[in-house]
Amino acid sequence: MGGEKDQAKGRVKQAAGDLTDDDDLKREGEADETAGKVKDKVDSAKEKADDAIDSAKDKLT
Predict the structure, then answer these.
(1) Cα 43 to the center of its chain, rounded Å
(2) Which residue of 7, 32, 43, 51 shows the fewest CB atoms closer than 10 Å?
(3) 54 within 8 A of 25, measured Cβ to Cβ
(4) Which pLDDT score, from 0 to 100, does residue 1 have?
(5) pLDDT greater than 90 at residue 13
(6) What count of other Cβ atoms lies within 10 Å of the Cβ of residue 33?
(7) Predicted structure pTM score
(8) Is residue 30 packed enough to be buried (19+ CB in 10 Å), middle (13-18) or exposed (0-12)?
(9) Is the pLDDT at 22 greater than 90, yes or no?
(10) Distances (CA, A) of 61 to 49, 52, 53, 54
């Protein structure tokens, strides 16, 4: 969920940077959006690892 929030924040900053011709704000928005995407990927990988661990535990019991 946090990743989606960061991505949205990044898109808003990029749009504001475009409107105001502020390159720093655009870059900050791009960084926020990328960070959000990374957070989503990490969360997804963590969930898959947790599922694999649970599956392995179930097979052992």
Answers:
(1) 8
(2) 51
(3) no
(4) 61
(5) yes
(6) 20
(7) 0.79
(8) middle
(9) yes
(10) 19, 15, 13, 11
CB-neighbour burial class of residue 9 (10 A; exposed 0-12, middle 13-18, buried 19+):
middle
Say if residues 29 and 10 touch (Cβ distance below 8 Å): yes
Number of Cβ within a 10 Å radius of residue 29: 22
User: Which residue type, as a one-letter code, is found at position 18?
Assistant: D
| Identity of the amino acid at 45 | A
| Confidence band, pLDDT 50/70/90 cuts, at residue 53 | very high
Largest CA distance in the chain: 61
Query: In this structure, what token pair is assigned to residue 2?
Result: 């946090």
